[in-house]
Design a protein that fits this description.
single chain; 219 residues; Rossmann fold; 6-stranded parallel β-sheet
């Protein structure tokens, strides 16, 4: 078997921080998904928000594109045959949590399936911006983050999972999700599974870490 030559590492401008399903419905009591997980899950989901906020702010500072991929369901969506209606499009439950509110220059993707690659134009939007590397965060490690990662892997994106910026219904499910990434998608797990502090440190240390204007999509 011939080994493939290593690719040039992606720059900040070729990277995106993907924040999955940080909608009110997934995080706070009263949401369908949050209530399904119960108080212990809600505490874990809420605890990841400050970490994500630090990551989002750091990404904007160094020129990494921030992408929100969040459920915005319509009646009749296939997923609603499995789950009760949740994060319905146009409702407050589908809004991204206030502490992570998108800003100008961020990309907001409204998805109707576990993976945004199935029900949205995220691939075209990322490619139009020259994105080659995805930092995967959000909810849930073993479901939407897993399906998103699989679709991104199959499309050739470089992947980094930020382990303390992901969460699931249970600690066990979170660990199982991380192990799945390690087993099936990671070519170099030590490099591709990182903590938020490690990723932010790398962003700040890399040569193109100076603040930059958000790049416009390529024609």
């Amino acid at each position: 078997m011939t080994n493939l030559a290593p690719r040039r590492p992606a720059t900040h401008g070729e990277s995106a921080l993907v924040v999955i399903d940080l909608a009110n419905d997934f995080v706070f009591a009263g949401g369908t998904i949050a209530d399904a997980g119960g108080p212990a899950y809600q505490a874990r989901a809420q605890a990841v928000v400050p970490t994500l906020k630090r990551l989002v702010e750091a990404a904007r500072r160094v020129g990494v594109t921030v992408v929100y991929a969040t459920d915005a369901h319509l009646p009749g969506d296939d997923e609603l045959r499995k789950w009760p209606p949740h994060a319905m499009k146009g409702t407050p439950q589908a809004d991204i949590v206030a502490d992570l509110r998108p800003r100008r220059g961020d990309v907001v993707i409204e998805k109707r399936t576990y993976s945004p690659f199935v029900s949205t134009d995220i691939h075209e939007q990322l490619r139009g911006r020259g994105i080659r590397r995805l930092y995967v965060t959000g909810l849930h490690t073993d479901c939407c983050a897993r399906h998103t990662s699989g679709d991104a892997f199959q499309r050739g994106y470089e992947l980094v999972w930020i382990t303390d910026a992901l969460e699931a219904f249970t600690d066990e499910a979170h660990r199982q999700g991380l192990e799945y990434f390690r087993a099936w998608y990671a070519a170099d797990a030590d490099r591709q599974l990182k903590t938020a502090a490690e990723v932010i440190g790398e962003w700040n240390d890399e040569p193109d870490a100076a603040p930059m204007e958000r790049r416009a999509p390529r024609a």
